[in-house]
Amino acid sequence: MIQRPKRGPLDGVRILDLTSVLFGPYATQMLGELGADVIKIEPPEGDVLRGVAPTRSTGMGVVFMSTNRNKRSVVLDLKTEAGQAALKKLVTTADVVVHAVRPKAARKLKITYNDLKQFKPDLIHCTAVGFGSDGPYADKPAYDDVIQALSGTADLPSRVDGGATPPRLFPSAISDKIGSLFVVQAIVAALYHRAMTGEGQALEVPMFEAMTSFVMLEHVFGEVHQPPSGPMGYTRQLSPNRRPHRTADGYMVVMPFSTKQWQAFFRAIGREDMVDSPQVTDPDRRSREIGALYEIVSAVMPQETTATWLERLEAADVPAMPVNTMEDLLADPHLTATDFFVEYDHPSEGRLKTMRVPIRMSKTPPETVKRPPPALGADTREVLREAGLSDAEIDALGDA
After folding, report:
1. Using one digit for the tens of pLDDT, what is the confidence trace for 75-112?
2. How many CB atoms within 10 Å of residue 161?
3. Domains of the chain (ranges plus CATH)?
4. What pTM does this model have?
5. Is the torsion defined by CA of 136, 138, 140, 144 positive or negative?
């Protein structure tokens, strides 16, 4: 029988996190928010993201702190016999091991599923890597920029204007973050399977395949049919007029989608001639000619202020919202009302701001900050003692 968690749905689950940078650490932070005891195992030099400025203290960069809450940090040099012995002890206490090491290096470090399952037969072992192990890219290095380029993400902007714009990277580490969501999905599903059967298993989450599936979901488009019924690329999303529209005093997005919404929009702007036009009422034709409809939206929006349009379109039940800058988000009325941005005190870094966990659970609510981001190796001695190592064994590891 599955026991109800005391705090967070993953309370009682221990995860050894051997990942670094964003792909992996973001996933394990989310698992920590859900109640898991996440032990971040770092090499003596620490996660490379620790050094990304700005910092107040050495090794405590702001992006690192945004992706490593709710974890304990243990320093182990897995290239040494003592580090390997300590890892094996920790594995016996763990439910999940997740690493982001390429296959060849993982075998060398002895952290593959076959290496570790002998110490914990029901272990869930997740490999979060750039590329699937059965493909020719398996041992290539991968970072977010590389995956954006390979997955078609960087190609999308040039599709909007017929190739006039060169490929460009989205200014956010979306491949790392989306890949991390797939890691969470895989681990939670495997935990459920183990709870039902007692079986552990090996998981592999390749970022290239994850991001390609994410990007291509709608953009496979005409290739869904075989033989193809048209080109790739979702017509509506690739229209050059699908963009924030300039108003008399700013920018906003207007998003009529259904027939009813398009008709309401044209009534709201006084274009009764368009309300019953087949260009609006025929979904197939509307899809094919969506660029022309967006052009009408773009042409009319500068005639009124953003506030006027928001009032008018809200009354018509047409989806529309202003464009927020990143700074605007800090004072957004909805985010303020839901206490989305929260502050807390860090023992060495002072007052910090972060984002509340965005999901709600009535029985096992997640916890945004149960532990602040750890200093490098701050919990080594505590965690290794819990695993049964003596003080002498811990001392033999070096600085702990």
Report:
1. 999 999 999 999 999 999 999 999 999 999 999 999 99
2. 10
3. 14-214+342-396 (3.40.50.10540), 245-322 (3.30.1540.10)
4. 0.93
5. positive
